[in-house]
Amino acid sequence: MHMLTSIRTSNGKIEIIDQLLLPHTTKYVEITSVEEAYDAIKDMKIRGAPAIASLASLAFAAYIQSGLDSAQPPAFLLSPESLSAQVIHKLDYLSDARPTAVNLGAAIRRLKAVLQSSTDAGKSVELIAADLISEGKLIADEDFDRNKRMAEHGGEWLAKLDRGSGGSGQELNVLTVCNTGSLATSGYGTALGLITYLHEQKKLGKAYYTQTAPYHQGSRLTALELKTMQISSVMICDTMVGSLFQHHKIHAVAVGADRIARNGDTANKIGTYNAAVLAARHKIPFIVVAPISTVDLDTPDGSSIPIEHRKQLEACLVRGAVHPFELDDEGKVRQETVMITPSGLEGIYNPSFDVTPADLITAIVTEKGVATRKEGQTSFDLSGVV
Ligand code: MRU
To answer: Which controlled-vocabulary keywords does the entry list (predicted)?
Structure first.
Protein backbone atom coordinates (compact mmCIF):
# COMPACT_ATOMS: atom_id res chain seq x y z
CA MET A 1 0.00 0.00 0.00
CA HIS A 2 1.37 3.42 -0.92
CA MET A 3 2.03 5.65 2.11
CA LEU A 4 3.44 9.15 2.40
CA THR A 5 6.91 9.57 3.90
CA SER A 6 7.69 12.40 6.29
CA ILE A 7 11.47 11.89 6.37
CA ARG A 8 13.67 10.31 3.71
CA THR A 9 17.37 9.67 3.90
CA SER A 10 19.88 8.56 1.32
CA ASN A 11 23.68 8.77 1.29
CA GLY A 12 23.68 10.89 4.41
CA LYS A 13 21.18 13.38 2.97
CA ILE A 14 18.09 14.09 5.13
CA GLU A 15 14.95 15.44 3.52
CA ILE A 16 11.53 16.15 5.00
CA ILE A 17 8.23 16.69 3.28
CA ASP A 18 7.23 20.30 4.03
CA GLN A 19 3.94 19.71 5.86
CA LEU A 20 3.07 23.41 5.71
CA LEU A 21 2.56 23.01 1.96
CA LEU A 22 0.41 19.88 2.13
CA PRO A 23 -2.05 18.79 0.86
CA HIS A 24 -1.66 20.58 -2.47
CA THR A 25 2.09 20.73 -2.92
CA THR A 26 4.47 17.89 -2.17
CA LYS A 27 7.90 19.35 -1.72
CA TYR A 28 10.85 17.80 0.09
CA VAL A 29 13.30 20.19 1.74
CA GLU A 30 16.80 19.23 2.75
CA ILE A 31 17.84 19.50 6.40
CA THR A 32 21.57 20.21 6.51
CA SER A 33 22.14 21.12 10.15
CA VAL A 34 20.86 20.69 13.70
CA GLU A 35 19.70 24.32 13.53
CA GLU A 36 17.63 23.67 10.40
CA ALA A 37 16.06 20.66 12.12
CA TYR A 38 15.20 22.85 15.12
CA ASP A 39 13.57 25.48 12.87
CA ALA A 40 11.63 22.87 10.87
CA ILE A 41 10.23 21.41 14.11
CA LYS A 42 9.43 24.80 15.65
CA ASP A 43 7.76 26.06 12.44
CA MET A 44 5.87 22.74 12.08
CA LYS A 45 7.28 21.88 8.67
CA ILE A 46 7.50 18.54 10.42
CA ARG A 47 5.21 17.68 13.33
CA GLY A 48 3.86 14.74 15.27
CA ALA A 49 5.69 13.65 18.41
CA PRO A 50 7.56 10.61 16.99
CA ALA A 51 8.52 12.35 13.70
CA ILE A 52 9.96 15.28 15.65
CA ALA A 53 12.16 12.91 17.68
CA SER A 54 13.24 11.05 14.53
CA LEU A 55 14.27 14.20 12.67
CA ALA A 56 16.14 15.65 15.66
CA SER A 57 18.04 12.36 16.15
CA LEU A 58 18.91 12.01 12.46
CA ALA A 59 20.06 15.63 12.15
CA PHE A 60 22.19 15.20 15.26
CA ALA A 61 23.72 11.95 13.91
CA ALA A 62 24.44 13.67 10.57
CA TYR A 63 26.16 16.53 12.37
CA ILE A 64 28.52 14.16 14.21
CA GLN A 65 29.08 12.16 10.99
CA SER A 66 30.03 15.27 9.01
CA GLY A 67 32.59 16.09 11.70
CA LEU A 68 34.12 12.62 11.35
CA ASP A 69 34.11 12.88 7.54
CA SER A 70 35.80 16.28 7.29
CA ALA A 71 39.43 16.35 6.23
CA GLN A 72 40.23 18.73 9.07
CA PRO A 73 38.44 17.37 12.21
CA PRO A 74 36.47 20.09 13.99
CA ALA A 75 37.64 21.12 17.46
CA PHE A 76 34.85 19.22 19.19
CA LEU A 77 36.28 15.92 17.92
CA LEU A 78 39.70 16.46 19.43
CA SER A 79 38.96 14.71 22.74
CA PRO A 80 36.14 12.88 24.57
CA GLU A 81 35.77 15.96 26.80
CA SER A 82 35.32 18.38 23.91
CA LEU A 83 32.92 15.96 22.19
CA SER A 84 30.89 15.62 25.38
CA ALA A 85 30.59 19.40 25.84
CA GLN A 86 29.48 19.91 22.23
CA VAL A 87 27.01 17.01 22.25
CA ILE A 88 25.33 18.29 25.41
CA HIS A 89 25.19 21.80 23.97
CA LYS A 90 23.54 20.62 20.72
CA LEU A 91 21.09 18.27 22.45
CA ASP A 92 20.01 20.88 25.00
CA TYR A 93 19.46 23.31 22.14
CA LEU A 94 17.18 20.82 20.34
CA SER A 95 15.22 19.94 23.44
CA ASP A 96 12.94 22.98 23.62
CA ALA A 97 11.81 23.05 19.97
CA ARG A 98 8.34 21.75 20.98
CA PRO A 99 7.67 21.49 24.73
CA THR A 100 4.69 19.12 25.03
CA ALA A 101 5.90 16.23 22.84
CA VAL A 102 8.03 14.17 25.20
CA ASN A 103 9.46 11.81 22.56
CA LEU A 104 12.03 14.46 21.66
CA GLY A 105 13.13 14.67 25.31
CA ALA A 106 13.24 10.85 25.50
CA ALA A 107 15.45 10.70 22.39
CA ILE A 108 17.77 13.31 23.84
CA ARG A 109 18.00 11.39 27.13
CA ARG A 110 18.91 8.24 25.19
CA LEU A 111 21.65 10.04 23.26
CA LYS A 112 23.03 11.54 26.46
CA ALA A 113 23.01 8.08 28.10
CA VAL A 114 25.04 6.67 25.19
CA LEU A 115 27.48 9.57 25.52
CA GLN A 116 27.85 8.82 29.22
CA SER A 117 28.28 5.05 28.92
CA SER A 118 30.70 5.20 25.97
CA THR A 119 32.77 7.86 27.73
CA ASP A 120 32.76 5.88 31.01
CA ALA A 121 33.96 2.82 29.06
CA GLY A 122 37.07 4.84 28.12
CA LYS A 123 36.37 4.68 24.37
CA SER A 124 38.22 6.88 21.87
CA VAL A 125 36.52 10.02 20.59
CA GLU A 126 35.91 8.31 17.21
CA LEU A 127 34.20 5.34 18.85
CA ILE A 128 32.04 7.54 21.09
CA ALA A 129 31.03 9.52 17.99
CA ALA A 130 30.21 6.27 16.15
CA ASP A 131 28.03 5.09 19.06
CA LEU A 132 26.12 8.38 19.02
CA ILE A 133 25.55 8.15 15.26
CA SER A 134 24.22 4.57 15.57
CA GLU A 135 21.86 5.53 18.38
CA GLY A 136 20.56 8.59 16.50
CA LYS A 137 19.77 6.45 13.44
CA LEU A 138 18.26 3.70 15.58
CA ILE A 139 15.82 6.11 17.25
CA ALA A 140 14.43 7.02 13.81
CA ASP A 141 14.54 3.49 12.36
CA GLU A 142 12.87 1.60 15.20
CA ASP A 143 9.71 3.74 15.01
CA PHE A 144 8.20 1.95 12.00
CA ASP A 145 8.25 -1.57 13.48
CA ARG A 146 6.89 -0.52 16.84
CA ASN A 147 4.06 1.34 15.10
CA LYS A 148 3.08 -1.87 13.33
CA ARG A 149 3.14 -3.76 16.64
CA MET A 150 0.94 -1.10 18.30
CA ALA A 151 -1.52 -1.18 15.41
CA GLU A 152 -1.84 -4.94 15.65
CA HIS A 153 -2.23 -4.95 19.47
CA GLY A 154 -4.83 -2.18 19.36
CA GLY A 155 -6.70 -3.44 16.30
CA GLU A 156 -7.04 -7.00 17.58
CA TRP A 157 -8.02 -5.78 21.06
CA LEU A 158 -10.74 -3.58 19.59
CA ALA A 159 -12.10 -6.33 17.33
CA LYS A 160 -12.22 -8.68 20.34
CA LEU A 161 -13.96 -6.03 22.45
CA ASP A 162 -16.58 -5.64 19.74
CA ARG A 163 -17.08 -9.41 19.45
CA GLY A 164 -17.39 -9.54 23.26
CA SER A 165 -20.29 -7.11 23.11
CA GLY A 166 -22.15 -9.07 20.44
CA GLY A 167 -20.59 -7.50 17.32
CA SER A 168 -18.80 -9.29 14.49
CA GLY A 169 -15.43 -7.63 15.06
CA GLN A 170 -15.68 -6.38 11.46
CA GLU A 171 -16.75 -3.08 9.89
CA LEU A 172 -15.53 -1.07 12.84
CA ASN A 173 -16.03 2.68 12.53
CA VAL A 174 -13.27 4.60 14.26
CA LEU A 175 -12.95 8.34 14.85
CA THR A 176 -9.55 9.95 15.12
CA VAL A 177 -8.27 13.46 15.85
CA CYS A 178 -5.34 15.35 14.31
CA ASN A 179 -2.80 13.43 12.23
CA THR A 180 -1.01 10.41 13.64
CA GLY A 181 -0.11 8.58 10.44
CA SER A 182 3.07 8.11 8.43
CA LEU A 183 3.50 11.90 8.24
CA ALA A 184 3.61 12.15 12.05
CA THR A 185 6.04 9.25 12.55
CA SER A 186 8.85 7.43 10.76
CA GLY A 187 6.10 5.41 9.06
CA TYR A 188 2.72 3.66 9.43
CA GLY A 189 1.58 5.82 12.34
CA THR A 190 0.07 5.30 15.79
CA ALA A 191 -3.72 5.85 16.01
CA LEU A 192 -3.93 6.13 12.23
CA GLY A 193 -1.75 3.01 12.11
CA LEU A 194 -4.45 1.18 14.10
CA ILE A 195 -7.03 2.34 11.55
CA THR A 196 -4.74 1.29 8.68
CA TYR A 197 -4.29 -2.12 10.29
CA LEU A 198 -8.06 -2.60 10.59
CA HIS A 199 -8.39 -1.65 6.92
CA GLU A 200 -5.69 -4.15 5.92
CA GLN A 201 -7.45 -6.85 7.94
CA LYS A 202 -10.79 -5.96 6.32
CA LYS A 203 -12.16 -5.06 9.74
CA LEU A 204 -12.65 -1.35 9.12
CA GLY A 205 -16.00 0.15 8.25
CA LYS A 206 -15.07 3.82 7.96
CA ALA A 207 -12.39 6.07 9.36
CA TYR A 208 -13.78 9.35 10.65
CA TYR A 209 -11.48 12.26 11.42
CA THR A 210 -11.90 15.78 12.70
CA GLN A 211 -10.58 18.73 10.71
CA THR A 212 -8.56 19.67 13.81
CA ALA A 213 -8.62 23.46 13.85
CA PRO A 214 -6.77 25.69 13.99
CA TYR A 215 -3.91 23.93 12.23
CA HIS A 216 -6.07 21.49 10.29
CA GLN A 217 -3.85 18.46 10.62
CA GLY A 218 -7.00 16.41 10.03
CA SER A 219 -8.34 18.04 6.87
CA ARG A 220 -4.90 18.67 5.36
CA LEU A 221 -2.83 15.65 6.42
CA THR A 222 -5.05 12.80 7.66
CA ALA A 223 -7.34 13.38 4.67
CA LEU A 224 -4.36 13.13 2.32
CA GLU A 225 -3.01 9.99 4.00
CA LEU A 226 -6.38 8.21 3.95
CA LYS A 227 -6.95 9.22 0.32
CA THR A 228 -3.47 8.01 -0.65
CA MET A 229 -4.10 4.65 1.03
CA GLN A 230 -7.63 4.48 -0.43
CA ILE A 231 -9.18 3.95 3.01
CA SER A 232 -12.88 4.69 3.17
CA SER A 233 -13.27 7.80 5.32
CA VAL A 234 -15.42 10.74 6.35
CA MET A 235 -14.19 14.15 7.49
CA ILE A 236 -16.11 16.04 10.17
CA CYS A 237 -15.66 19.52 11.60
CA ASP A 238 -14.44 19.57 15.20
CA THR A 239 -17.86 20.79 16.32
CA MET A 240 -19.61 17.72 14.91
CA VAL A 241 -18.27 14.99 17.21
CA GLY A 242 -21.38 14.98 19.43
CA SER A 243 -23.69 14.87 16.43
CA LEU A 244 -21.65 12.03 14.90
CA PHE A 245 -21.98 9.99 18.10
CA GLN A 246 -25.73 10.67 18.25
CA HIS A 247 -26.45 9.67 14.67
CA HIS A 248 -23.84 7.06 13.65
CA LYS A 249 -22.49 3.87 15.13
CA ILE A 250 -18.92 4.63 16.14
CA HIS A 251 -17.06 1.69 17.68
CA ALA A 252 -14.09 3.57 19.09
CA VAL A 253 -12.13 6.80 19.20
CA ALA A 254 -8.40 6.27 18.63
CA VAL A 255 -5.96 9.12 19.21
CA GLY A 256 -2.21 9.58 19.51
CA ALA A 257 -0.39 11.27 22.37
CA ASP A 258 2.31 13.83 22.88
CA ARG A 259 2.87 12.91 26.51
CA ILE A 260 1.29 10.35 28.81
CA ALA A 261 1.72 11.04 32.53
CA ARG A 262 2.42 8.26 35.07
CA ASN A 263 -1.28 7.95 35.96
CA GLY A 264 -2.38 7.77 32.31
CA ASP A 265 -3.52 11.39 31.87
CA THR A 266 -2.74 12.12 28.22
CA ALA A 267 -1.80 15.31 26.39
CA ASN A 268 -2.74 15.30 22.74
CA LYS A 269 -3.89 17.72 20.07
CA ILE A 270 -6.42 20.30 21.16
CA GLY A 271 -9.93 18.88 20.82
CA THR A 272 -8.98 15.40 22.05
CA TYR A 273 -10.47 16.08 25.49
CA ASN A 274 -13.77 17.18 23.92
CA ALA A 275 -13.91 13.91 21.97
CA ALA A 276 -13.13 11.92 25.15
CA VAL A 277 -15.90 13.58 27.16
CA LEU A 278 -18.39 12.91 24.39
CA ALA A 279 -17.14 9.31 23.96
CA ALA A 280 -17.69 8.68 27.70
CA ARG A 281 -21.20 10.12 27.45
CA HIS A 282 -21.94 7.74 24.54
CA LYS A 283 -20.07 4.77 26.10
CA ILE A 284 -17.66 4.59 23.16
CA PRO A 285 -14.21 3.11 23.94
CA PHE A 286 -11.53 5.79 23.90
CA ILE A 287 -8.10 4.44 22.96
CA VAL A 288 -4.72 6.17 23.16
CA VAL A 289 -2.08 4.68 20.84
CA ALA A 290 1.51 5.77 21.49
CA PRO A 291 5.00 4.32 21.80
CA ILE A 292 6.50 3.72 25.23
CA SER A 293 8.75 6.75 24.66
CA THR A 294 5.60 8.90 25.03
CA VAL A 295 5.03 7.69 28.59
CA ASP A 296 6.72 10.08 31.00
CA LEU A 297 7.00 8.47 34.42
CA ASP A 298 8.58 11.68 35.78
CA THR A 299 5.29 13.49 35.21
CA PRO A 300 2.87 12.31 37.90
CA ASP A 301 -0.33 13.53 36.27
CA GLY A 302 -1.70 15.79 33.57
CA SER A 303 -1.51 18.96 35.64
CA SER A 304 2.29 18.99 35.30
CA ILE A 305 2.41 18.45 31.54
CA PRO A 306 3.71 21.65 29.87
CA ILE A 307 1.18 22.79 27.28
CA GLU A 308 2.51 24.59 24.25
CA HIS A 309 0.61 27.72 23.30
CA ARG A 310 1.13 28.65 19.67
CA LYS A 311 1.16 32.16 18.23
CA GLN A 312 -2.21 33.86 18.57
CA LEU A 313 -2.20 34.67 14.86
CA GLU A 314 -2.21 30.96 13.96
CA ALA A 315 -5.76 30.69 15.32
CA CYS A 316 -6.87 33.49 12.99
CA LEU A 317 -5.56 31.91 9.82
CA VAL A 318 -6.64 29.15 7.53
CA ARG A 319 -3.69 27.74 5.69
CA GLY A 320 -3.70 26.23 2.27
CA ALA A 321 -6.71 27.91 0.69
CA VAL A 322 -6.55 27.30 -3.01
CA HIS A 323 -7.11 29.31 -6.13
CA PRO A 324 -7.58 26.36 -8.47
CA PHE A 325 -7.39 28.40 -11.64
CA GLU A 326 -4.21 30.23 -10.76
CA LEU A 327 -0.98 28.31 -10.95
CA ASP A 328 2.31 29.48 -9.54
CA ASP A 329 5.56 29.79 -11.52
CA GLU A 330 6.18 26.06 -11.17
CA GLY A 331 2.72 25.23 -12.50
CA LYS A 332 1.45 24.20 -9.07
CA VAL A 333 -1.86 25.14 -7.48
CA ARG A 334 -1.37 28.38 -5.60
CA GLN A 335 -1.79 28.32 -1.85
CA GLU A 336 -2.66 31.16 0.39
CA THR A 337 -3.13 31.79 4.02
CA VAL A 338 -6.47 33.46 4.62
CA MET A 339 -7.31 35.50 7.69
CA ILE A 340 -10.71 34.48 9.06
CA THR A 341 -10.98 37.12 11.79
CA PRO A 342 -10.83 40.91 11.88
CA SER A 343 -7.25 41.94 12.56
CA GLY A 344 -6.27 43.15 16.03
CA LEU A 345 -8.65 40.96 18.07
CA GLU A 346 -8.50 41.67 21.79
CA GLY A 347 -8.11 38.11 23.01
CA ILE A 348 -7.16 34.82 21.36
CA TYR A 349 -6.72 31.55 23.26
CA ASN A 350 -4.55 29.10 21.32
CA PRO A 351 -3.26 26.11 23.30
CA SER A 352 -1.95 23.46 20.91
CA PHE A 353 -2.79 20.54 23.18
CA ASP A 354 -5.24 19.54 25.90
CA VAL A 355 -5.10 16.88 28.58
CA THR A 356 -7.56 13.99 28.69
CA PRO A 357 -7.85 12.65 32.25
CA ALA A 358 -7.10 8.94 32.64
CA ASP A 359 -10.62 8.14 33.82
CA LEU A 360 -11.93 8.98 30.34
CA ILE A 361 -9.44 6.64 28.65
CA THR A 362 -10.44 3.01 28.10
CA ALA A 363 -7.06 1.68 26.97
CA ILE A 364 -3.50 2.79 26.32
CA VAL A 365 -1.82 0.83 23.52
CA THR A 366 1.96 0.68 23.27
CA GLU A 367 4.30 -1.64 21.40
CA LYS A 368 4.25 -3.87 24.50
CA GLY A 369 0.50 -4.40 24.48
CA VAL A 370 -2.76 -2.94 25.74
CA ALA A 371 -3.03 -1.43 29.23
CA THR A 372 -6.46 -0.96 30.73
CA ARG A 373 -7.56 0.52 34.05
CA LYS A 374 -8.28 -1.91 36.85
CA GLU A 375 -11.94 -2.29 37.81
CA GLY A 376 -13.08 0.78 39.75
CA GLN A 377 -9.78 2.68 39.31
CA THR A 378 -9.58 6.11 37.76
CA SER A 379 -5.91 5.90 36.77
CA PHE A 380 -3.56 3.51 34.97
CA ASP A 381 -0.62 1.63 36.39
CA LEU A 382 1.89 2.16 33.60
CA SER A 383 4.96 0.98 35.50
CA GLY A 384 4.62 -2.47 33.88
CA VAL A 385 4.34 -0.98 30.42
CA VAL A 386 7.50 1.10 30.43
O1 MRU B 1 1.01 19.91 16.87
P2 MRU B 1 1.23 18.56 16.23
O3 MRU B 1 0.66 18.46 14.86
O4 MRU B 1 2.66 18.11 16.32
O5 MRU B 1 0.36 17.56 17.15
C6 MRU B 1 0.38 16.20 16.85
C7 MRU B 1 -0.45 15.40 17.77
O8 MRU B 1 -1.09 15.90 18.68
C9 MRU B 1 -0.40 13.92 17.58
O10 MRU B 1 -1.62 13.34 17.94
C11 MRU B 1 0.72 13.32 18.44
O12 MRU B 1 1.91 14.02 18.26
C13 MRU B 1 0.94 11.90 18.11
S14 MRU B 1 1.57 11.68 16.45
C15 MRU B 1 1.78 10.02 16.22
So the answer is: Amino-acid biosynthesis, Cytoplasm, Isomerase, Methionine biosynthesis, Nucleus
pTM of the prediction? Answer: 0.94
Give the least confident one: 132-136, 186-190, 382-386: 382-386
The Cα–Cα gap between 358 and 316 comes to 31
pLDDT of residue 84: 97
Query: Domain 7-141 is of which CATH architecture?
Result: Up-down Bundle (1.20)
Q: Which atom of ligand 1 is nearest to the CA of 190?
A: 15
CATH dotted code for 151-307+351-372: 3.40.50.10470
Q: How far is the CA of 71 from the centre of ligand 1 (A)?
A: 40
R_g (Cα) of the chain, nearest Å? 21
Distances (CA, A) of 66 to 40, 129, 304: 20, 11, 38
**CA pair distance 97, 131, nearest whole angstrom:** 24
Of the two residues 332 and 138, the one the predictor is more confident about is 138
Domain with CATH 3.40.50.10470 in the chain: 151-307+351-372
Predicted confidence (pLDDT) per residue in 298-319, tens digit: 999 999 999 999 999 999 988 7
| Protein residue with least CA distance to atom 10, ligand 1 | 256
In whole angstroms, what is the distance from residue 130 CA to residue 124 CA? Answer: 10
What is the position in ligand 1's atom list of the atom closest to the CA of 47?
4
User: Which DSSP category does 301 fall into?
Assistant: S
Q: Which helix (H) or strand (E) holds 199?
A: helix 191-200
Taking each continuous run of H as one helix and of E as one strand, the counts in the chain are 10, 16
ipTM: 0.98
What are 221-256's pLDDT values in tens digits? 999 999 999 999 999 999 999 999 999 999 999 999
Contact 269, 352 (CB under 8 A): yes
